[in-house]
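Regression report. Comparing outputs from two consecutive submissions.

Submission 1:
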Amino acid sequence: MLKTVLSVLLATGTAIASAATPAQMLETYTIEAARQTPGFQPSAQRGAQFYTKRFAVSEKMPACATCHTDDPAQAGKHVVTGKTIKPLAPRAEAARFTDPAKTEKWFGRNCGEVLGRECSAAEKADFIKFLAEGA
């Protein structure tokens, strides 16, 4: 997946070495999702539903909101380690979704723990749209 995102970043002219913005990350995932589903448009509403949806994979981490709280503009706490987690919403944590490699790393870990699988490009686009524009 990281290889695909990096390829999309290169194809769209975004320099990997430079910092991205949430809007650029959203565009990257939207392009990838549209390749898989022509006409795809990200939705903050679907992103919000995804954020709060309970998946049956883990009793300890059934949803994103389990660790990140119901308000993604607030700090969260990892339910297993107890470690404080900075807010997910870029308006509350300016560094969110500004590093493509870090973004993919955390999508990989969190999607695996909560969903039990990799998140799709469409899910990532909806998630970022919700956090960047609606949360």
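Submission 2:
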Amino acid sequence: MVQTRTTVGSEVIDSPTKTHKSRRRVSLDHGTVRVLRSHRARQAEERLAAGEAWVGEGHVLCEDDGEPIHPDRLTGAFRRLREAAGLPPIRLHDLRHTYATLGLRAGVHPKVMSERLGHATVGITLDLYSHVVPSLDREAADAVAGLLDYQSDGSASVGGAESI
């Protein structure tokens, strides 16, 4: 089942995803797959050890009895890990923005990042994140200039075509 888990006040709310695009498949890198498989194997051992006390339904992040972890507990664990690593204050949700920023800086096509993030349009992705990639303008100028053959008289041609 695909759903979201949030807190409203002190109450935990499980609900369907916001939009159709929120329900999507995304590729995972080999390292992440390896970590998730190892985690699943540990969970299987915990489930066997818990026996009938196990109440979980297959959540990736859960308590020792399989019960889904409370969102506030996850947020607190993230804060403690962040502090221990000496990182500046960021929210758990900020990891999504970090991922998008790093992807665009690494040259991942904005349409691909938009789909991975579940944005309704690539325009949303570009509006939110293009400012973090100031090198795009310079790269565009250099890419087009690389197609031109400049002559000593100041004229240019495109791949040996007629001068412009």
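Expected: both submissions complete independently.
Actual: both completed, but the second showed a warning that disappeared on reload.
Relevant detail on submission 2: The radius of gyration is 24 Å.
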